[in-house]
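Schema walkthrough. Field components (list of strings):
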Amino acid sequence: MPTETTKSIFWQGVRDGVPFILVVVPFALLFGVVATEAGLQVYETLTFSVLVVAGAAQFTALQLLQEGAPTIIVVISALAVNLRLAMYSAALTPHLGAASLKQRGLVAYFTIDQSYACSVHKFEENPHWGLHQKLTYFFGTVTPVCPFWYGFTLIGALVGSAIPDGLALDFAVPVTFLALISPMLRTPAHRAAAMASVLTSLIFAFLPYSLGLLLAGVAGMITGAQVELMHTRRAEPTLEAAE
Amino acid sequence: MIDKTTLWTVIILLGIGSFGLRFAFIGLIGDRTLPEWLLRHLRYTAVAILPGLVAPLVIWPEATGGVIDAPRLIAAVLTVITGFVTRSVSAAIAVGAASLLSALYLLG
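Field assembly_structure (string):
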């Protein structure tokens, strides 16, 4: 392997981040369009994307706001969708925890699905990398992703009002959510969690203040954890044999 | 129309909260590990919330006044199948949008 300069490590990060542009662009555009259709101003939509930087949570909040859910329910539900970010933060800590407070603040802001996925994978492949190299790679991965997130939110917000009716935009949000969820249904535990969430949400749809969604979240998490536990217990003998 | 005070309250609280979640470990907790039972529940947060949010939207679409609607249901099913099989969010969105528009054109 050739000697790795800081510059080459940065570009490795950029290269690994580039494919995600394909995911981020339509998602950001759609958020801009849907937010505009919901009555948000361009600067409100852009602020949303710049401050939150998490598509699924932004769509969740927007949907619940449109349904007239109470502020506290909107915030709790959207943050629940974002709880995975705390897991990413935990996973990055052994690698980047020694950075300065300012750097850790920046890392935290840029902790997104893509930077987490690329970095954790790469750091494990390159255990000889020092803190500086790891930080360089991490910031490389977000360089092609985040500007596209902001930029295409803005473009979506600007063109949003020009989109003709009859395109069934009401269903853009459900389709986006389904597209996000379905690749996550990798294990029986994930599928069981999703199923429990759907059933609970439909059964308790009559509850006011979107409380049914909170119940669905709790039911889904407990179901997922329990099914995982059942499978690990059953799989344990084989796991030990494999090790 | 969304109330402006509510909107800005949500944007700001969500911004602070999301940063808080991202900063929680790397900024404050350091190398201490979380109990396994907590991690086990955290793993399922996204699949626990998002399906519950989307299910009523699919079954009782707003655009039809809450009446179940064949084109939207077909699009939903095809989106899920595509995402599940290809593991690609973009492919699922593309198939979902295309099937929704064609189903609306053909059946609508």
